Amino acid sequence: MSAMPAPRIGDAYNPNCPTRHILDRIGDKWAVLVLLSLKDGPVRFNLLRRRIGAISQKMLSQTLKSLERDGLVSRAAFATVPVTVEYRLTPLAGGLIGILDQITGWAEAHVGDIMAARRAHDTGVEAIAA
Questions:
Q1: Hey, what's the signal peptide range on this chain (predicted)?
Q2: C-alpha distance from residue 19 to each of 27, 45, 65, 103 (Å)
Q3: How many whole angstroms separate alpha carbon 77 and alpha carbon 3?
Q4: How far apart are CA 105 and CA 36, in angstroms?
């Protein structure tokens, strides 16, 4: 019985590929919202939660821990009562923010087209490509 070869980097279609794991992380909706919320500087946990909205404390905590593990977010705790914790982007995340800003810009430019396509699909009318 032969062993399965290790996944190659760059084989994003393989679920075990390291590239795929990174794409999954940055493709997660909460991760994207956290990263974009931190782009203007450090933010405390509760403010971050208010900025994002509709995210539970548990999910925000898990997302921040995952982003910290991946080296995209850093956490700083300050000895206050209660303890103050701030999160900020790492230099590694800097290049990613530009890409996320481009995706956000594309979404804003095409939201009308996408909403029209959804309405047409949901009503059974074929959308005419622009």
A1: none
A2: 12, 29, 19, 19
A3: 45
A4: 12
DSSP letter for 5, please: P
* pLDDT number for residue 10: 65
CA distance linking residue 83 with residue 119, whole number of Å: 48
The angle, 0 to 180 degrees and rounded to 10, between the axes of the packed helices 57-69 and 29-37 is 80
Spatial distance between the Cα atoms of 25 and 100, rounded to a whole number of angstroms: 13
Q: What is the pTM of this model?
A: 0.80
For residue 109, give both structure tokens: 């430019």
Query: Hey, which residues does 76 pair with through a beta bridge?
Result: 86
Residues of the chain with pLDDT under 50: none
pLDDT digit string, tens, across residues 53-71: 999 999 999 999 999 999 9
Nearest to 35 by CA among 77, 68, 1, 2: 68
CB atoms within 10 A of CB 112: 9
